[in-house]
Amino acid sequence: MSTLLQGLIEAIHLIAARDEALTQIAALSLRVSALALVISTLLGVPVGAALGLTRSPFHGLITAVLYTGMGLPPVVVGLFVYLMLSRSGPLGVLSWLFTPKAMVTAEVVIAWPLVTGLTMTSVRGVDPALRLQVRSLGATRIQEAWAVLLEARIGVVAAIVAAFGSIISEVGAVMLVGGDIEGKTRVLTTAIVLSARMGDFAQGMALGIILLLLAFLANVALLRLQGRTVR
Amino acid sequence: MIYEVDALKQVYGGRTVLHIERLAVRDGEILALVGPSGAGKSTLLRLLNFLERPSEGVIRFCGAPQRGAVTLGVRRQVTTVFQRPVLLHDSVRNNVAYSLRLRGVKAAERVDRALAEVGLEGLARRPAQTLSGGEMQRVALARALVVEPRVLLLDEPTANLDPYNVSLIEGLIRDHNQRTGTTVVLVTHNVFQAKRLAHRTALLLNGYLVELAETPLFFTSPADARTRAFVQGEMVY
Q1: DSSP structural state of residue A221
Q2: Which end of chain B, N or C, is more open, meaning fewer C-beta atoms within 10 Å of its C-beta?
Q3: Given an 8 Å threshold on Cβ–Cβ distance, is B89 in contact with A135?
Q4: Is A205 part of a structural domain of the chain?
Q5: Which residue of B has its CA nearest to A149?
């Protein structure tokens, strides 16, 4: 209990003091997760919508693959991305390993199936009669797809929120591909692991509280976006 | 004639659900399609809205045969109001404006006029999903009318509505047809509704057009025994 309290006090102290190292770690955490989220959303929402709108004989297989992707163990993703980006790997020429770019890549691999799968499910959940109604009002195929996507927006935003929650709290994959290098690839989650390993539980708690606060604020922003679109 | 249908056949999974040798719809009339469930009425409506391609036969719209992919310009001259109004999760006003938005038209005064026509100007800002069934159907009607279609297709528009809303919607359809000359094809189970609204009435049974006649004749002197049985409320299917 005293560690918890001490952590809380230290968190308040660190935030109030605007500790430079902490600010840099928190900023990198947000930057990496935000960029991964934007990429996953840009790639995942259109693919999820297309899968939700079309019928394919491989529908069952695609769903099973996506749902498996949604539950990928992050550490396995980290290992896979590590091998891809390592010098001997197929993408070694990029020299991304142990840089924030590698962390973004790993987080995209984790977030993309979530955004795609949940968008697909939301689009499939839209009343099928809507498509016929919209077409009868004179919609083109693109307008029809857009109307369905807009009707599914609550689920789509929920998909983005879920993906953000998953990557902002990610530790295994980012540690593997980022290396937890101080001042370069250290993010809040890897810093928490380091604090715990060093026995500095108060510092770890403080970082944890800051991480939760950032996740909370980001989710509030996303939910406000959802609230604005749903009248 | 706004529509001329020749040897039209629609087959789903090997089963013929509609087979009409000939049907002509006059420009500006209200044509009622009556018949029991499964007679092919809604299928015919979807074909007339070019939402489906016929398995066989041809539909001429304003004299031009519509084969293959029907152009957007033709499709946008026809709109359907379905039995169950499917409204967007948006305000009443935005729902009505939606069909104009699809055409890239911004015309607030047309939306106001359409809302006034269906008596919903006071509910313009309300979320559409909070309306009653009758109000929702009036929004759906306003959304269809706001684009001033040449043809308005109505698929059981008053089913499940209370008598007040039935009378209100029937009045709106009749007034709009008289004022603008919009052709209306109305699918209904309710023979009395056909009697009240339609200039001509047609009976469909098991996908076939049994009889088409001026409404007074259809009800007083039907040529076909099945029509006589149907208007007298006897089971004919």
Answers
A1: H
A2: C
A3: no
A4: no
A5: B88
